[in-house]
Amino acid sequence: MTLGSRAIAMNNRTTPNNMTTIHSVNTLRGRGLPDKTVCHVGPILDKGGMAAVIESISSMRIQGWSIDVLNSYRRWPFWARFSHVPSVIKRLSMKHQKGNLDLVHIHVTHGLSWYRKRTIARWCMKNNIPTIMHIHSGRPETIIGNSKRLLDSARESDLLRIIVLENRWLNQFEKRYLDRVSVVPNAPRKIFTSDSKSEDLMFGIFCRPVKHKRHRLALSTIGMLRDQGFDAKIICTGNPFDSPPEWVEQHGWVDQYELHELMSRCRFIIQPSLREGSSMAVIEAMSMGIIPIVSEASRETIGTRGITIKGDDPSKWASLILDYIDDSQNKPSENVQEQHDSPNNREDVAESLRLLYDGQIS
């Protein structure tokens, strides 16, 4: 654990109902409290990508801003998903009354998450607090429709702004909404910016063990590479396979330091998902120089790096991977250099957030 992360851990305050406040790096390093405070609301105690995004942002230096974080979610028991809403509002109200709240940045996905977070957003706007709704969903159709209706209801106040992760989501908003919708790409957490020391044909799968991630397609693809005589192997997290073959190294849920260690052994990350918002696993792997092999769902995320493959035929996936290896065998990797010019650069994302924050309270 680094000095900065130890400092954050030591300065966390755990409050009733799993409410957690994480103070910003700016405050911890003796710079004094900035004039403005943004409070992020989201599932910071969960193990998914949204929590990783919030962790990444909360560790950034955003000039002129102090960052607080409130947990809004606990997976079980089921009722806890709703009981956090009044608790969050109570904490926000306390901060507002003390003059310690300038902006609320709410992280949301589809389903029940939207309705819970919409309640918090409406409370914020009712109390004249500038609010950002940050959409993380890989299924944007419904949630973008809901976002438009919320923007329509807040049109006269200009208190609300929507953040989406990629241009493909922005393109689903009509022109009249575009002055209140911004694209802010996900950025890797700080630890994921070093080069990997990969094993030759090690493939990583680092995502939830759910059906739409298509773990079986990845397993079949690597199996076909092995059938052709290649010593390809898999490292995966989340225990997605029952009785996997001996060439699969399977782990449960891991923290970011363990994940970094596992990723550093990979030459490739393979993610054949049916849908993605903007995968933090892919972004963090690329920031380490790992080559992404992804489905159409992550085409915009990887840009010109790695390969994007259509369909669900493992023989096609295996063939295109072999073609890529053959083409790049004697070429130096450009992934490490490309990360400095990518939209996922931490400094660039921090500056984008600063401009949005400043604009939202001006």
Please tag this protein with its features.
14 helices; alpha/beta; Rossmann fold; 6-stranded parallel beta sheet; 362 residues; disordered N terminus; single chain
What does this protein structure show overall?
The protein is an alpha/beta fold and 362 residues long. It folds into 2 domains: 3-187 and 345-361, 3-Layer(aba) Sandwich (Rossmann fold); 190-341, Rossmann fold. The protein has helices at 3-11, 25-28, 49-58, 80-97, 112-126, 140-153, 167-170, 215-227, 256-263, 280-287, 299-302, 314-328, 335-341, 346-361, and strands spanning 13-15, 19-21, 36-42, 65-71, 103-108, 131-135, 160-164, 181-183, 202-205, 233-236, 248-250, 268-271, 291-295, 307-309. Strands 4-3-5-6-7-8 form a 6-stranded parallel sheet, with helices on both faces. β5, α5 (112-126) and β6 (131-135) form a beta-alpha-beta unit. α4 runs parallel beside α5 and α8 (215-227) crosses α12 (314-328).
